[in-house]
Amino acid sequence: MLVQTMADFPADAEPALHLGLARRMGGDLAGALAAFEAALARDPYYFMALFSKAAILEAMGRKAEAARDYANAFKIAPPAQSLPPPLAAAMARARDLVDATRTDKAAFLHRAIAQSGIVAGAKAQARIAETIDILAGVKKYYVHEPLLMTVPGLPTVAYFDRELFGWFGELEAATQMIVAELKEALRTANAQFEAYIQRPPSSPLNQWANLNNNRDWSTLHLWRDGQPIAAAQAVCPQTTALLKSLPMADQPGFAPTAMFSVMQPHTHIPPHTGSANSRAIVHLGLVVPGNCRFRVGNEVREWRVGEAFAFDDTIEHEAFNDSDDVRVVLIFDVWNPYLNGEDRALITALGAAMHAYNAQG
User: Fold this and answer.
1) In sequence order, what are the beta bridge partners of 272?
2) What's residue 201's pLDDT?
3) Which pLDDT belongs to residue 251?
4) Contact by Cβ (8 Å): 229, 223
5) Model-level pTM?
6) Which of 152, 190, 257, 345 is most exposed, with minimal Cβ within 10 Å?
7) SS3 sequence, the chain?
8) Is the distance from CB of 74 to CB of 91 less than 8 angstroms?
9) Does 202 have pLDDT greater than 80?
10) Do 310 and 334 touch, CB atoms closer than 8 A?
11) Residue 261 pLDDT more than 60?
12) Contact 31, 54 (CB under 8 A)
């Protein structure tokens, strides 16, 4: 009867789905697979047909194919809260299969490269290792996701090479001086640390709900959006002078921003992205207990006292202080090292034009 209904309604995928379910209950896996494929030929985005096809492939021992179809089914699945409990449980089991299959594929490919006999340096090895993990689906490929402005053609790199910042040694050598001024800033009433996230009540908070107006993540700005903060700079004159000597991203009304960033114990700054990939963000570790880490894209690093690194903050990043002590880092923005002088001048002019446009109301 279902076969006849399929013939009578050639554009309707539902009869083919029910035929597949009936055949599966009868133990005819090959027949069920054919029916589900017929349903998908009528509607390639039919979630139940695709999920059922994946389940048949799994039952037939074709786990790699099943994992592929499960993964595609997840992309078109209804909202989790609308799923009946049995289907939700089946999807949870399917996710476990997908994860295990991806892990197995990555392990196989890592072994194959390790056994290939190819001699390569650490940078090339790290790149191919991440390539494998992205290819296998173990990791995500991260791209620029700026909130404001994208400059096309710039490399998508999480952490920039140290060699691009010849002044890192000078900055790192000044760590003790910067820490001394930080301590004075923490002590004096002339400098006020404040919550970094300060959203108005009418603003959607999304991932910032736990940190909004919360001093678990607090900052003292030396510059904010291109404006010097006189009171803070007065307390930290040598740090201010040092930063002025560096290629900070001078864009009136937007950059530079420079600040001491304080994370209280057991604080998590959730995944987010920054405003523009015309900048590189520099961190210098000042007060760093153990169990403090920073993720940009797929790469996780730990801060170290007196060690600087630069990253692209338009790539998703997050921070963790899992220790019982406070973590403090000096943060400031400099020009993206892949921009030349002409690029910088034009981007600065573009920023001024944007402000003029917005000022029109």
Assistant:
1) 317
2) 76
3) 86
4) yes
5) 0.84
6) 152
7) CHHHHHHHCCCCCHHHHHHHHHHHHCCCHHHHHHHHHHHHHHCCCCHHHHHHHHHHHHHCCCHHHHHHHHHHHHHCCCCHHHCCHHHHHHHHHHHHHHHHHHHHHHHHHHHHHHCCCCCCCHHHHHHHHHHHHHHHCCCCCCCCCCCCECCCCCCCCCECCHHHCCCHHHHHHCHHHHHHHHHHHHHCCCCCCEECCCCCCCCCCHHHCCCCCCCCEEEEEEEECCEECHHHHHHCHHHHHHHHCCCECCECCCECCEEEEEECCCEEEEEECCCECCEEEEEEEEECCCCEEEEECCEEEECCECCEEEECCCCCEEEEECCCCCEEEEEEEEECCCCCHHHHHHHHHHHHHHHHHHHCC
8) yes
9) no
10) yes
11) yes
12) no
In tens, the pLDDT along 280-290 reads: 999 999 999 99
Q: Which of 22-31, 181-190, 198-207 holds the top average pLDDT?
A: 22-31
Q: Are 274 and 149 in contact (CB under 8 A)?
A: no
Overall residue count recorded for the chain in this entry: 361
Residue 161, token pair as written in the block:
């090479």
Structure tokens belonging to residue 112: 């194959």
What does the alpha-carbon distance between residue 27 and residue 56 come to, in Å, rounded to a whole number?
10
Helix axes 122-136, 85-114, angle to 10 degrees: 150
- Comparing CA positions, the residue from 216, 221, 223 lying closest to residue 320 is 216
Query: Which tokens sit at 173?
Result: 């050598």
pLDDT above 90 covers what percent of the chain? Answer: 76
Euclidean distance between CA atoms 40 and 38, whole angstroms: 5
Q: Dig out the tokens for 150 from the structure.
A: 């994208």
**Rounded-to-integer distance, Cα 280 and Cα 335, Å:** 6
Cis peptide leading into residue 85 (ω within 30°): no
Tell me which residue has tokens 């290629």: 247
Q: How far apart are CA 350 and CA 361, in angstroms?
A: 18
Tokens coding 336: 């993206």
CA dihedral 32, 36, 39, 43 (to 10 degrees): 180
